[in-house]
């Protein structure tokens, strides 16, 4: 495979819409904080002893105490006691299957959600492009294929060309993709999203890239917790409490449609500055009602979405949440709050936390380098005792294997390297000396094995 140097890959390539508007003091990750040795209660809510998701809520969660999720947590806790690196033999490899509730994922190399902005008809329905894109990567050996940020409401699309699951008419367009992924041996998952103040932006097919699309060109007014714009995008309108409840319902309805389409796992997008992370982050959420204020209030929307989604999906279906572990901005969302949140998510039946960073506030500087987000997944895994995935410039098979063998994550996600090489997992198997018989080849491709 072509191992790309990190010089070619910058944070600007990401889909974070992190437009370069230096309106905030840039911060780099403090090494002490990343290693979990930061000052206790240094977060705005840690200091005042605020907690998220009361016991009553946790009790209400349908799947919160499932045996499987307890099992995951205990395994993490056991490793914590054994110290990193001591019990290497019990740690999984890239090709070790992984159980999540009722499903088994064939390996720990997953395709993260990546928008393709390719619904040119603007009706939210995936097309033959999406079929070949996802199914080819399932044949390429990925264990879980997490389909791109898919809107739970038309006004929640990042661009007019996003996929959607906001109406029943979109279900059939997903079915053949889901079936194709499953037939190729991978687990089909879907990321559900509402883009909030980062909605109605342009894309390659439409133009207006990095800008708000004007209404006359098919754009729409945006909404957010508070009327604060992201960078140079249009200023959003603050959502009413009734509207917040409506969006919680939209997430649940979209999750129900995903189940009908055959998806085997749901990922809730609470990262990268889209609506849910706008609520989480004190720099975007200035509400003085029950959805703002301390960590409890700012997390309420996400926890309600999790409960609502858990309430409609089967008991044995995994629910994942993607978070940004920091917004890389002074006074904003940080690792301490992420760990506190992850503990609550676990109690509400979330089976795995997908740990990313950034995208929430514009104009911050991010120390992008290979595996730069791995310290965050490691800390969330150890401190919240919840299974996690690591993502972000993991491009080399040996390095990816080390992330797992050192207990820094339970699975890795290969994004842009998986865009340029749909067969990344099969190529990795070859590089790591995994026999063809144990690599995730579909029978049709064995004779052309690496
Ligand atoms: C083209 C593109 C589209 C993306 N779209 C999404 C998305 O829909 N949802 C999401 O959570 N992250 C999205 N991301 C972020 C990726 O999932 C991933 O976290 C990021 O690319 C870092 O991983 P990598 O270095 O392996 O590419 C996108 C990234 C790229 C490059």
Automatic annotation (TrEMBL):
GO terms for molecular function: FMN binding; NADP binding; NADPH dehydrogenase activity. It holds the Pfam family Oxidored_FMN. Residues 67-90 have a biased composition (Basic and acidic residues). It comes from the Bacteria. Residues 38-57 have a biased composition (Gly residues). The keyword Flavoprotein applies. Its cofactor is FMN. Residues 94-432 form the NADH:flavin oxidoreductase/NADH oxidase N-terminal domain. SUPFAM superfamilies: FMN-linked oxidoreductases. Keywords: Flavoprotein, FMN, NADP, Oxidoreductase. Residues 32-93 are annotated as: Disordered. InterPro entries: Aldolase_TIM, OxRdtase_FMN_N, YqjM-like. PANTHER family: NADPH DEHYDROGENASE C23G7.10C-RELATED. This is Oxidoreductase FAD/FMN-binding protein. It comes from Bifidobacterium myosotis.
């Amino acid at each position: 495979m072509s191992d790309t140097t990190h010089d070619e890959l910058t944070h600007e390539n990401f889909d974070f819409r992190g437009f370069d508007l230096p309106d905030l003091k840039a911060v780099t990750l403090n090494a002490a904080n990343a290693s979990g040795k930061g000052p206790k209660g240094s977060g705005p809510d840690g200091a005042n002893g605020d907690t998220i998701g009361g016991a009553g809520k946790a009790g209400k969660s349908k799947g919160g105490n499932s045996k499987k999720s307890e099992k995951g947590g205990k395994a993490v806790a056991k490793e914590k006691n054994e110290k990193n690196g001591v019990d290497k033999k019990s740690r999984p490899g890239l090709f070790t299957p992984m159980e999540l509730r009722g499903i088994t994922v064939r390996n720990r190399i997953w395709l993260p959600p990546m928008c393709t902005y390719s619904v040119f008809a603007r009706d939210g329905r995936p097309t033959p492009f999406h079929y070949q894109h996802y199914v080819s990567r399932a044949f390429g050996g990925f264990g879980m294929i997490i389909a791109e940020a898919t809107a739970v409401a038309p006004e929640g699309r990042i661009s007019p060309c996003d996929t959607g699951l906001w109406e029943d008419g979109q279900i059939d367009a997903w079915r053949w993709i889901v079936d194709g992924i499953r037939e190729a041996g991978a687990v089909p998952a879907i990321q559900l999203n509402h883009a909030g103040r980062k909605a109605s932006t342009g894309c390659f097919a439409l133009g207006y890239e990095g800008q708000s699309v004007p209404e006359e060109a098919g754009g729409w007014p945006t909404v957010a917790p508070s009327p604060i714009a992201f960078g140079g995008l249009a200023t959003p309108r603050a959502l009413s409490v009734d509207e917040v409840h409506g969006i919680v319902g939209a997430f649940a309805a979209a999750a129900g449609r995903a189940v009908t389409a055959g998806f085997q796992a749901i990922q809730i997008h609470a990262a990268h500055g889209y609506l849910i992370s706008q609520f989480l982050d004190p720099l975007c959420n200035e509400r003085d009602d029950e959805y703002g204020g301390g960590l409890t209030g700012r997390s309420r929307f996400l926890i309600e979405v999790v409960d609502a989604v858990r309430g409609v999906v089967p008991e044995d279906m995994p629910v994942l949440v993607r978070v940004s572990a920091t917004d890389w901005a002074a006074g904003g969302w940080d690792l301490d709050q992420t760990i506190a949140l992850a503990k609550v998510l676990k109690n509400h039946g979330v089976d795995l936390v997908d740990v990313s960073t950034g995208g929430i506030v514009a104009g911050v500087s991010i120390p992008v380098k290979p595996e730069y987000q791995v310290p965050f997944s490691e800390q969330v895994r150890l401190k919240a005792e919840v299974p996690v995935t690591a993502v972000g410039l993991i491009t080399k098979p040996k390095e990816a294997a080390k992330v797992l063998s050192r207990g820094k994550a339970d699975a890795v996600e290969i994004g842009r390297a998986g865009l340029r090489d749909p067969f990344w997992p099969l190529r990795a198997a070859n590089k790591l000396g995994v026999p063809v018989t144990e690599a995730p080849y579909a029978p049709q491709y064995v004779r052309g094995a690496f």
